[in-house]
Amino acid sequence: MNNNGQMIMLQLLFLFMTIVITVAMLPAINSILGVGQNSENLNCKGYNDTDTPSLSYNSSLNTNKTACLALDLYLPYILLVVLIGSVSKLLMPSGGRSPYEV
Q1: CA-only gyration radius of the chain, Å
Q2: Tell me: the pLDDT tens digits for 23-76?
């Protein structure tokens, strides 16, 4: 196998490892986001805590809609950044090295 083939296989391996690590970290990230949405100061409308339903959305309190929206979009944002970054690294010419390197 030539150097280009080895580089592509190595990049595929790193892509696979990145996806596996990201998927393994999703439950932890999701629980951290749940803690943030469960805050009484945010009072996110779409969030329902399954562990303690008494701490879920309270309609008598004010809601910080911007912060709740940011927390809702955080997980898809992380997934898209990892996926796009990994695929662009894979498809980058010259094996991901700068064309200006010697």
Answers
A1: 20
A2: 899 888 888 887 777 776 777 766 666 666 555 666 777 777 788 888 888 889
Provide the 8-state DSSP code for 67: H
Give the dihedral sign, CA 11/15/20/25: positive
Distance (Å) of CA 83 to CA 19, 44, 66, 68, 89: 8, 28, 26, 24, 10
Six-digit token string for 11: 């990049």
Residue 41 DSSP code: T
Of 94, 98, 89, the C-alpha closest to 17 is: 89
Per-residue tokens: 75: 């997980």
66-to-14, 21, 46 alpha-carbon distances in Å: 35, 29, 13
